[in-house]
Specification:
The chain has eight helices and five strands. By secondary structure, it is an alpha/beta fold. The model has no long low-confidence stretch (mean pLDDT 92).
């Protein structure tokens, strides 16, 4: 059985992660690859419950350490239920957010620091690392504008409220954004950064080029 391949997508909400994951999954499947898509928080029954708790803006009083613990509870379940089984059967896993998000949002944005995040990842997640991380970093202002507009539209359509993070002050997102850059500089072999505000198809083609090259190296 061929070894699976684990690709994560990172960036602020509104950076285009979900769109690029869908496009990449379609490309890979057309080329005969077995692909599974998931997200964090969420993706499992337990994770979806955690997601609704973490992202609901009515839960404004969640303490930073509680938030951190919930993120890792979701991640541990996702690894056990989805990611490891898929990798063990040779599938390509595309995951919308992973521990880099926690280091950026809770470590950077909430100012908890990287050490506690990386320690929890080692202890609770078996230190499972992505083979490749695509970090999408369009302008901070554009990402926030997209995310807030999208979440408001979703709330109006189906009543879902996932605006808790988008209600944070700009300083929170600046710290998060800069922490992503710190992670990318620290792990240049794993993290491929795509910044700027290019069209969706241009970004997709850049991602396809990177992924095809990495998969060829694997085989």
């Amino acid at each position: 059985m061929p070894q699976g391949y684990f690709i994560t997508f990172e960036g602020l909400d509104g950076s285009g992660k979900s769109t690029q994951i869908r496009l990449l999954a379609t490309h890979l499947e057309k080329n005969g690859q077995s692909v599974i898509q998931t997200r964090q928080p969420g993706g499992t029954e337990t994770g979806d419950r955690i997601r609704s708790l973490i992202l609901d803006s009515r839960n404004a009083g969640i303490a930073p350490l509680t938030e951190l613990a919930l993120m890792f509870a979701d991640r541990a379940q996702s690894i056990a239920e989805i990611i490891r089984p898929a990798l063990n059967t040779g599938q390509i896993v595309l995951c919308d957010r992973y521990t880099d998000s926690t280091e950026a949002y809770q470590g950077g944005g909430r100012q908890l620091g990287s050490e506690i995040v990386l320690d929890l990842h080692r202890d609770l997640c078996g230190n499972l690392q992505p083979d490749l991380t695509i970090l999408l970093l369009p302008s901070l202002e554009k990402s926030l504008r997209r995310a807030r507009r999208r979440n408001s539209r979703t709330a109006a359509l189906n009543g879902a409220d996932e605006n808790r993070f988008e209600r944070e002050q700009d300083a929170f997102f600046t710290r998060t954004y800069e922490q992503y850059r710190t992670i990318a500089a620290r792990e240049p072999m794993r993290v491929v950064t795509i910044d700027g505000d290019e069209p969706i198809d241009a970004i997709h083609q850049r991602i396809v080029s990177v992924v095809n090259e990495r998969l060829a190296q694997r085989t």
